[in-house]
Amino acid sequence: MRIRRRGTRLLVVLMLMILPASLGAAPAWAASPVNGSGSTFAYVAIQQWMSDVARLQGLSVNFAPKGSTQGRQEFASRQADFASSDVSYNFPGGLGVEQDPPFKFTYMPLVAGGTAIMVNLKDNAGRPITDLQLSGGLLVKLFTQNMFSCANKGSEKEIFWDDQAIKDDNPGLEARLPHVRVRPVVRAGGSGTTAVFTDYLNQMDPGRWKAYMQGVGGNPNGCSTEKSSKCTDQVCGPTDVWPNRPDTDLVDGSDRVAIQVKNGNASWGWIGYAEYAYAIQLNVPVAKIKNAAGQYTLPTACNQAIALTAAERNGDGTYKLDNVHTHPHPSAYAISSYNYIIVPTEGFDAGKGETLAKFVLYSITDGQKNVDQIGYSPLPSNLIKQGFDVLGQVPGHPAVPGNPDTWGKFYENLQLPDGKKCGQVGEQTANDPPPAQNDNSGNNNQNNNNNQQNNDDNKKDDKGAGSPSPTPSASATTKAPGPKPSKTPKATTGPKASTGPKATTGPTADTGPQATAGPSASGSATPGETTSGGGDPGTTTPGATGGDATVAVDQNGQPMPETPGSTGNGLIDPTLAAGAAREIDTVASSIGTPWTLFGLAVTMLAIVFAPMILAGVRRLVRVGRPGE
């Protein structure tokens, strides 16, 4: 009887010890949450990665898409743990209006992308024009002409969409181009996308762009405009803040630019710029842009990759785009660029550093696998290696892999329709003189681009990766696809930044069975805010994709219009998929972590088998007693 009582007490104590631990205790391996701020250019990809690491690793990563400029400022003031930016601090160089963070930090490429030129233009029958072609010089005119035509009445006429210069770029559309004015839609406030785009515009026509930045003061026609704050006697070119000009809409966020262009009324012909992912997600037609070879191309993953082989590394780890804009390959997309993540390398909490490093590690490795399906281009091996070196400097970082080629294959697999590797042909032709252009380039522009998107999505797996690509900081003796290293790059940036330790080999980001289901990445209905997602697919920020599904594109890489009763891609509605993922995560979170489930299982087993175990113990005791 005494043994039974003791056994019962033991069982009760065991249950009381297990139940609280299983129901409420946090796992010992849980890392600290981190908060980031910055670029809307990369937000579609970042949002997907946040959802992935929450689901696979139980990491809590939050990001506010407020624009590159605001993100850099919040990082410098420690309001954000990391920043995403399309350009470095003090862009453009020489202004001296932006202070570097008062602590050591560094940049690393996060993803490649292309700035798409979105248009909403209908012919006289009300049919959308979806195959527009524009040259670089004409783009400068279209985005600046409202100021000049107002201020210089009589000397510069207003440009209508049936202007002869536009017809010259579009010989097949002469009869369809409408006689309506051009209405540009641009980013308000500091924007990395604006910085990249105006860098291109300035290179195409520096004189006109400088005059646009300088504005027109005291104009007798009533069109006076103030000089841009980013225009000084020393520097007056590319800018991250678009100046306020007549008949030009300034809106917050890349998503709002895309929505404004898409929903513009037919009394104007609308044009705007944003990362290609937004055009795909919102089904906005994209213009083909004329490159240095005289061909008109779209910002597909392969075309971005080709152009970026001409990028040259700056000392701080970012990349110069001058040669990207003029890459001579016929398929190069001229307005291609990188997005960077800015991370601290000292004075940072190790718990947060672990979370941040794991998130970045996933983003530049497994996270690159399907970025070509949502409007971006994957990183080549040498830029992934650059990221590995950077992660080795983040306090609290986990073990970093040693061989980037495992994930560089996503880049290597990008192919042209003829089967040639995009990175290889880009590298081979980066230093070639551009071919002679002819008057019929507009008619023959699709020779290298038909079925481009389909070939990007149906890549062949490259089984023979060959030797590892050189790191960006090395003096390469064998060229590999990807941007060129500078002659004397520095390892890190920031005040008195020093070179960090070399990356060590080790496992990749944890994806094992112990990982918990964290919260899914939230949507963004308003730039600068992180919400719970949902809402109307036509008015929310794209990027809340469910898995790998994307909006369908046609053989020329244009977003295909939705048909009644169908989803955006004919397969899965990204918004509904994201909502379903959030519901699953909510249910999983309410159940608890795998440790919770383990504890409950142990408790149930104890309840079921404890009586049998105690009975066996009692029999053994009785057998051992003398006389029994």
Gist of the model:
This protein is of the alpha/beta class and 628 residues long. The chain has helices at residues 2-24, 43-57, 68-76, 136-151, 164-169, 192-204, 206-214, 254-263, 276-282, 301-308, 322-325, 350-364, 381-391, 405-412, 422-429, 452-457, 574-591, 594-624; strands at 34-38, 61-64, 82-85, 105-120, 133-134, 181-187, 249-251, 268-275, 288-290, 296-297, 312-313, 319-320, 336-344, 376-377.
Overview of this structure, please?
The protein is an alpha/beta fold. Among the domains are: 2-25 and 593-624; 117-297, D-Maltodextrin-Binding Protein, domain 2 (3-Layer(aba) Sandwich), CATH 3.40.190.10. The chain contains 18 helices and 14 strands. Strands 1, 2, 3, 4, 6, 7, 8, 13 and 14 form a nine-stranded mixed β-sheet that branches. It has a three-stranded mixed β-sheet with strand order 5-9-10. Strand 9 and strand 10 form a beta hairpin. The radius of gyration is 28 Å and the shape is elongated. Mean pLDDT is 75; it is low at 10-14, 18-29, 438-480, 487-551 and 562-598.
